[in-house]
Write a structure and sequence with these properties.
With 238 residues, the protein is mostly beta strands. The protein is built from three helices and 19 strands. It is 9% helix and 38% strand. The strands form five sheets. It has a five-stranded antiparallel beta sheet with strand order 5-4-7-8-9, with no helix packed on it. A five-stranded antiparallel beta sheet has the order 12-11-10-13-14. Strands 18-17-16-15-19 form a five-stranded antiparallel beta sheet, with no helix packed on it. The longest helix is centred in the first third of the chain and has 9 residues.
Length: 238
């Protein structure tokens, strides 16, 4: 393995890459998403969007600031791109969001310009920081400091709708019965469903959630779900 690369044959199964066309792949830099949950921005531009044919061409597009991630220009070809990240290509007037399909692959879904103005963030935990304030920690590594009283209304696995322009919370979607969720992992990955029941366990094991989708009822652990709406998804493509 060369520095910053890894053999394609050994890349995570979540990557939408052909394994035998080239020997090497660009390894995502450590950052907002783990290796198995992200793919480098270079591969997004070249291999998923087909905006370039070579590494050099894709690198030039990125270095010239023609790609925005979550509303900000990113010039790092190794920037890891993962679940619910918003990709904007202003010159093409195209916007995409990253989701997981039923095969477990990270894929891009085209979204409306209005949907590219916000991002869905799943709350993974809350911590108390210096000064008695609370820190909200989200699935993409983003942190937000809020007053302790305000933090009480947030529950782990809740989703917030983040305004990408001013970084303010536009809406909170609660993790509760009746909420609409996107299954991000497990045998039902890539599916939409509604929460029927949340079974809490008195052990280190994750809570079990009973879901209803497409007329079927199934169970999964809460770490495998991502709340995306109340009666219907906030994003039209999930």
């Amino acid at each position: 393995m060369t520095k910053g690369h890894l053999k394609r044959i050994a890349t995570p199964r979540s990557w939408s890459l052909e394994r035998k066309t080239h020997p090497w792949a660009v390894r995502p830099r450590s950052g907002p998403h783990g290796l198995r949950e992200s793919i480098s921005l270079l591969h997004v531009v070249r291999d998923m969007l087909d905006y370039a044919d070579t590494f050099k061409e894709a690198k030039k597009i990125i270095n010239e600031g023609k790609v925005l991630v979550d509303g900000r220009i990113v010039r790092d070809v190794k920037r890891g791109i993962g679940l619910m990240d918003v990709i904007d290509i202003p010159l093409k007037k195209e916007s995409f969001v990253v989701v997981v399909n039923k095969k477990g692959l990270l894929v891009l879904k085209s979204i409306k310009a209005s949907e590219a103005k916000f991002k869905l963030l799943s709350l993974v935990n809350k911590t108390i920081v210096k000064g008695g304030r609370a820190q909200l920690n989200f699935h993409d590594g983003r942190n937000m400091i809020v007053e302790t009283a305000a933090a009480k209304k947030f529950r782990v696995h809740d989703t917030v709708v983040l305004n990408l322009k001013d970084k303010s919370i536009k809406e909170q979607i609660k993790y509760e019965n009746g909420a609409t969720v996107f299954v991000r992992n497990g045998s039902h990955k890539g599916e939409l469903a509604k929460i029927k029941d949340i079974q809490k366990t008195r052990s280190p094991m994750s809570n079990v959630v009973t879901l209803e989708g497409d007329g079927n009822e199934f169970r999964t652990i809460e770490d495998y779900i991502f709340v995306v709406g109340k009666d219907k998804p906030v994003l039209s493509v999930v």
